[in-house]
Amino acid sequence: MVKFLLGYAEMNNLKIDIDANGNHAFIFACGNGHLEMVKFLLSLSTNELVENASFGKVEENDSSFKNAKMNNREIDIHAEEDFAFRCCRNEKIIDLLLPLLNRNKDEFYFYKEEEYYILKPLDFEMDLSRTKFEYFQIYHEETDYIDDCIEAYHSYLKRFRKKSALSFIYDEWKSSMMNENHLSQIVEDSLSGKWKFTKTRINEI
What we know:
The chain folds into two domains: 1-101, no CATH class; 103-205, no CATH class. 57% of the residues lie in helices and 9% in strands. It has helices at 2-11, 20-31, 35-44, 48-51, 63-71, 79-87, 91-101, 146-191, 199-203; strands spanning 108-112, 115-120, 130-132, 137-140. Helix 1 (2-11) crosses helix 5, helix 2 (20-31) runs antiparallel to helix 3 and helix 2 packs parallel to helix 6. The longest helix is centred in the last third of the chain and has 46 residues, at 146-191.
């Protein structure tokens, strides 16, 4: 039905905003467990966050795809204080959303036994019940699995520590390679007579 409406809109030069009314269509699809609809709406979004993920690309000759791209629409998965995540009870949709939601070390989304937990920095404000800790706060309805959330968050943080360590190693390797290439150029320039190869120049590398 949605594909039909989007195709009809393009044929009749009409515009349909897939993110209208605070991303209602996306939130409704998540809340009602419509996995294929969630995938379809995400595949139409021009949001960089979801474009980099894989939802089974919509065919380029599909009129609904062309219409959505033309309108440059974006799905805000955090709309209405993360309501799409909070109202969803379909674990397949949750599994689809979590990699999109868990993107940085200061925020963490956790779901277990139909209960949601949203970890945010202390200065973040949402009009939801929460529990504050020393370095972060967790928004939730129930507290049954709040300890599980914290434990999962600690494991999640290791991913960023590894990434930081690898980044440091790469930067050091890159720097050493640049210095090696620079030294080779100095030797080449010296041999070609462009300038004198001196100890002072080496110390500047």
